[in-house]
Amino acid sequence: MIASAPADRIGWHPYGNPDRSALAAMGIVELVLHTRDIVGAHHIDYRAPAQLVAPCLDRIFAHAERSDDPWQDLLAATGRTPESRGQAWRWDSTAKPVP
């Protein structure tokens, strides 16, 4: 869907109307976080690859604090670390200008 959508096409989301890059980042974030949530309930450790997570952080969590570990940064940005649990969070899926 991402590859075939016109570059100027904008979707809808309550946290910003997304372009293709935001839709891709949102989909990846949903997939890796919920995979972690599900397998974690079965005491299986899961860690998404940094090269997959880092661009998503840059695209929809630009405001999030960064370290040298994008996976931990994503977990913190979404309230999944002991320090961030219970904190409100949201991503920014606002469309970016087409170059």
From TrEMBL:
Region described as Disordered: 76-99
Top-rank taxon: Bacteria
Entry protein name: Mycothiol maleylpyruvate isomerase N-terminal domain-containing protein
Organism: Actinoplanes flavus
Lineage: Bacteria, Bacillati, Actinomycetota, Actinomycetes, Micromonosporales
